[in-house]
Amino acid sequence: MTTKQQKSRRSLILVLAAFIIPIVMAKLALHFQWFNYGVTNQGELLAQPMTLSETGIRTEQEKQWLVIYTLPENCDQQCQQTLVGIEHTYLALGRETPRVTPIAISASPFNAEQLQHLNKNHWRIIDTPMNAKKQLAKMQIYIADPLGNIVLTYQQPTNSDAIPAFGKSMLSDLKKLLKYSRIG
Is this model's pTM higher than 0.85 or not? Predict the structure, then answer.
């Protein structure tokens, strides 16, 4: 066998390997589940579809994205830090903030100390509707689209160290939703 034939065989093998190895690696990645399948959201998608009308939440804002926080009976330090984290996320939206309204659903009225942590121009505080008690879990954060569908949910951060990560994940999801949405 001549060196010219050896070089042409080696070139053929290298070209075949360049095309076959990525296909084999992709098949192995799918088979052994090395990657998440198409998961791009940080929040949890709702398994059962839910609408704002089912929960009894009435909004004055038409065509607005809503960030809904169902407060516990007594809004403690962790609850207040979560409210501040949501507000920071809202402000981080920048030029998209007019498209979003944060709503706090509270069973008990806020006291003066709690209200000073919130910017009343940004937040809308409403009493808990009867249906919302059944439908919405306490200490959850929901995102609703402008058509009134609740699409994502987040757990309240368990400690103050988890609030920045929570805010980043919610900001990431909101930016994607606002970018791809033509309504609201």
Answer: no
1 with 77, same domain: the answer is no
Domain match, 19 and 100 both: no
Dihedral sign from CA coordinates of 72, 75, 77, 81: positive
Q: C-alpha distances in angstroms, 149 versus 65, 67, 68, 85, 142? A: 10, 12, 12, 23, 10
Strands (E), the chain: 44-51, 65-70, 100-106, 124-127, 140-144, 149-155
Q: What is the pLDDT of residues 24-60, one digit of tens each?
A: 999 998 888 887 766 677 788 888 888 888 887 877 6
Residues 50 and 27 in one domain: no
In this structure, is the dihedral angle defined by the CA atoms of residues 174, 117, 129 and 108, taken in order, positive or negative?
positive
Rounded distance, CA 106 to CA 98, Å?
23
Domain that residue 21 falls in: 1-35
* Number of neighbouring beta carbons within 10 Å of residue 1: 6
